[in-house]
Specification:
Blueprint: H1 2-92, E1 93-108, E2 118-135, E3 140-149, E4 155-160, E5 167-172, E6 177-190, E7 193-201, H2 223-226, E8 234-244, E9 247-255, E10 284-293, E11 300-308, E12 326-337, E13 340-351, H3 354-362, E14 378-389, E15 398-412, E16 424-436, E17 439-450, E18 458-470
Antiparallel strand pairs: 1-2, 1-18, 2-3, 3-6, 4-5, 6-7, 7-8, 8-9, 9-10, 10-11, 11-12, 12-13, 13-14, 14-15, 15-16, 16-17, 17-18
Length: 471
């Protein structure tokens, strides 16, 4: 009995021991599992934190990249705007240029009494002209034209009112000169009306309109006009202009001429005040023109008129107490159709009180006009040029032409008898060759006649090359 009780007790004790062991093992496994779960949860939390940081970094990088993209886009747009603005400014700028260089072989007379001519061969870089223009707005623009004559600079003349009771003094630094032929500002709100002011071209004489080498046929510009008017006449002033249908008009108020430098051989041409540093404006002048058609592009007819006093612009104002009113009328026409070119012009002018002007010029210190003092109370000149473009029949860019220039600055005088020494006629034949449209090579030969029986006829020959282009 006791032994059974002992065995039962041992069995119970064994079972209870195993239960305690199992219970201890279970507790240990639960703790380990909890720790593992906690560890995994910590790792998951860390991973979530890392993921959050990565997401935030990616979002930050994306925002930074977007800012960089926006900045780059802004810079590209800014540069594109600057380029567009620069292109727009450049499109408003214009540049033109033309020039001529000549070789001449002429027979010259030493003075007005000489009747034995001497032949001289000469080279001349006649002129280089640059024109700058800018279109500020659709209505406002400006243009400046600078001419370099005869390959040199520095010829000037000034009036000293104190030295030796008032002298004209010349200072020559080189063989030619640089002059501003145009410096004008234009306001043109419509095709029919515009205003220009500054240093402007006068519309008197066709040379003021057709002065580029491809616009006239002769090697040099027309001698007849140069013997009566300033070449490509420009003055300070203001003018209105415009086009109505096929009519072109101009009307100007400008600075006048100075009769102190009127001369027998070129009438009013030397009276242009460009030789002085300052332009006297005590006497103003009127210039007007009306054309039907366009002389620059084809057929046209036109009339022009100039009127102004010249005594008030003299430096020695006490030498002349009468008006020296001058008037000039121009009638011109052009027929340019197909291969045919025909142009002509007639100029007629009158000058008041020529005897008084002549006497004042003779006795003004420094002028020394000598035999060139006599002035015409009436003056006239004309030219006619006719050409045929051979490329209408042959594959050669050549134009042949004939030309007549006539001038008589002493058509009539106030008193006495007018000398015929300065009545000249030039007759010539020539050719223009255009190797490319921007370049012309010219040759011309002809006869020069003076309306004095004792002076023999002479002949001349000239070669020239000219260019013109625009940007």
């Amino acid at each position: 009995m006791n032994s059974k009780i002992s065995l039962l007790a041992m069995t119970l004790a064994s079972v209870m021991g195993l239960g305690s062991f199992a219970s201890a093992n279970a507790a240990n496994e639960t703790d380990a599992l909890a720790k593992a779960i906690a560890k995994q949860e910590a790792e998951i939390a860390a991973l979530k934190q890392q993921l959050k940081l990565i997401t935030e970094q990616q979002q930050s990088q994306s925002a930074q990249q977007q800012v960089e993209r926006d900045t780059l886009t802004s810079k590209v747009e800014q540069v594109a705007g600057e380029v567009s603005s620069a292109q727009d400014r450049f499109s408003r700028f214009s540049f033109k240029s033309y020039g001529t260089a000549n070789y001449t072989s002429d027979e010259y007379f030493d003075n007005v009494q000489d009747t034995t001519p001497e032949r001289r061969n000469r080279f001349d870089l006649e002129r280089i002209v640059t024109e700058f223009g800018y279109q500020f707005t659709d209505e406002w623009s400006m243009e400046v034209e600078i001419e370099y004559e005869h390959g040199g600079t520095g010829s000037s003349l000034e009036y000293d009112g104190f030295d030796e009771f008032g002298e004209f003094e010349s200072e020559v630094e080189a063989g030619g000169e640089v002059i501003v032929e145009k410096a004008e500002i234009r306001y043109r709100p419509s095709e029919a009306f515009g205003v220009k002011f500054g240093n402007i071209h006068l519309p008197i004489g066709l040379t003021s309109i057709l002065h580029k080498p491809n616009q006239y046929l002769t090697v040099q510009r027309h001698k007849s006009e140069a013997a009566m008017l300033p070449a490509v006449w420009n003055e300070n002033g203001i003018g209105v202009y415009g086009q109505v249908s096929d009519f072109h008009y101009q009307a100007q108020i400008v600075s006048g001429l100075n009769s102190e430098y009127f001369r027998t051989y070129d009438w009013s041409a030397s009276g242009h005040q460009k030789r002085f540093e300052h332009v006297n404006g005590d006497d103003l002048a009127f210039a007007g023109r009306l054309d039907y058609g366009n002389f620059k592009t084809g057929s046209a007819v036109g009339v022009a008129y100039y009127y102004g006093n010249t005594s008030g612009n003299r430096h020695k104002s006490n030498k002349l107490d009468v008006d020296g009113a001058i008037s000039i009328v121009s009638v011109a026409g052009a027929f340019v159709e197909g291969p045919w070119i025909l142009r002509g012009q007639y100029l007629y002018g009158t000058l008041d009180n020529t005897d008084a002007i002549t006497q004042a010029n003779k006795t003004t210190p420094g002028l020394r006009p000598g035999n060139f003092a006599q002035l015409g109370s009436e003056s006239q000149s004309f030219f006619v040029e006719a050409g045929v473009k051979l490329d209408s029949w042959f594959n050669i860019p050549v134009t042949v032409f004939a030309n007549i220039d006539y001038s008589n600055p002493l058509m009539a005088v106030e008193t006495g008898t007018a000398t015929k020494r300065f009545e000249n006629t030039w007759s010539s034949l020539g050719v223009n060759y255009f190797p490319i449209p921007e370049v012309v090579i010219k040759a011309e030969g002809g006869l020069h006649q003076v309306a004095v029986a004792s002076i023999p006829d002479t002949n001349f020959f000239a070669l020239g090359v000219g260019y013109q282009f625009s940007l």
